[in-house]
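Fold sample X.
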Amino acid sequence: MYRMRYLRRRMLTPTSVQLTREQESRMLAEQINLLEFQLNTIRKRLEETPKESSTQRFQQYRFKRSMRPILSILIPKIDSSRCVGCGVCVNACPTGVLALVGGKSRVVHAEACVRCGVCSNLCPSHAITI
């Protein structure tokens, strides 16, 4: 790790002096070494990650698909006619489920909702129900 920081620092320092061909080739060789080191690190990390089988992916897909009706019941519902777009619910949501879109609050990450009810309790116009 120290070597990588050293090489990065060395590559990123601005030089106002004209480099000779030898210096420039040495610097390029160091950059190549750094890039090869980073590439090897990435390859090692990819090899260490467990591979999912197609059966596991299909089971996850089936589970998510089977949960859609249940999740659609449990996500916050926003009455856009009552929403004034103040953003109190967006700022209060601990998981970032809500966002202001077009001046109105919208559910953007329903799967992240923990159903705590903070958004509906703090909404001044009572536009959110869970």
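Fold sample Y, listed below.
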Amino acid sequence: MDELTDLAADLVSVPSHEDEAAAGDAIESWLRKETDADVRRDDAGNVLARKGTGEESLALVGHHDVVPPDEGQVREDGYVVRTEDGRLYGRGAADMKGAVAAAMCAFRDADPAEGLELVFASFVGEEVGGTGARHAIEAGFAPDYAVVGEGSTNYSGPDVTDVVVSSNRAETGVLADAYAGEAERSFTEDAQAVFEALSPTWFVGHGVERSVVASEEGTDSVAVPAVSDPELTTSSGDHFNAGLGLARIAGLPPAAAVVLGNAVAGYFVRTADQPSLADVRAFVDDYLEKF
């Protein structure tokens, strides 16, 4: 394996679904060894590194916590990691230690232009509401530009990337306050504010009671069927995004795409299991009856 794959495999092998400290230690240690940057660990456990100086800043952003692994993904000394057909497999390989490893290497190898500060940031608590990122923002983390390793969906055509930004209700509020100023706004107004600031293809906010999608076609708010006794809520947002991505691939319009996202997440929180296409179809067919 090459250096990047080796680094990603090392990070993936470190458990971080309950306690991110060991994964953060590995990232911090590598950065201190491989770079001359100013590397710091904040009170939340986030790892931040900076090099270069200037009036503008560019941040390479990721997170090193993961959702709980399946039994088959765990061994006595950490997570199971394997390669197959040139691909790396293990809990967190895609979400998102592989991208964190790439950002670490890019940060080390980059020579910031004059007038630019380059920042590396790997946050804790992304899977539980973005607690690490929120801590950093409250402490003044506000780069002018950011590259996030998990942020785009399918390609709609040659040289064209459809970018869909998706966040939960709390994260949507934080983004709206950051881009439009702190104010009392509805969920829909927050989504509209973030869409206007970022200009993605779609901005989607998903919540417990409703999900909102803003696009050039307007803004749609779709109610979420309530569940009084969920089996599992951790990673429900990931399942919503899986349904949303499927809808994008299928070419569904914004409101229908959100319904599909709600359906995949809704099935998951009720069963703690991943739905088949038949399960999703049945959930959508009975969507209105669930209210």
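Sample Y note: Residues 155 and 161 are 5 Å apart (CA to CA).
Also: The chain has two domains: 1-150, 153-291.
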